[in-house]
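Meet the record:
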Amino acid sequence: MLAKDIVQAIQAEPLSIWNNNLLNKDYSMAFASDLMSDALAMIQNYPESTILITGLCNSQVLRTAEMLDIEMIIFVRGKKLPEESLEIAAEMGFNIFTTEYTMYETCGILFGKGLGGIRGSHTS
C-alpha cells in the first residue's frame, strides 16, 4: 500500500515530511504498539516495508525508529510531538503523521485496505 494511500485512508495530517518521494513508497506491513521494546523485537526483520503506529509520543519512539531504519511513523489519537522533537525527526529522516483515529480504528482501517501485520512466533 502506498504511503500516500495510507495517509488518505486514515485522514492523517503530516507533522514532518522529510522526503516527499517516500509518499510513493509501497509498504506491506504495519506494526502498532506503545511498547518500543515490542517494536524492536518484532520489526527488526522487516523495517523497510513496515510503518510504525503508536500512541507513545516522545523521543523514545524516534530512537526506536532510528535503530530499526523505519521511515514512516503514525501517531494516533491526534497526538503530536513537541516542536523540538519534530526538528530532530526531520534531521533523522522520518515522515511523521498524526490521525484522530484510535490505534484500534487506525489498524482496522489499514487492515481492511489490505495492509498486513507482522506475525510473531507463537509457542505452545
In short: Strands lie at 13-16, 29-32, 50-54, 72-75, 95-98, 116-117. The mean pLDDT is 90. Helices lie at 3-9, 36-43, 59-68, 83-92, 103-112. The CA atoms of residues 11 and 41 lie 29 Å apart.
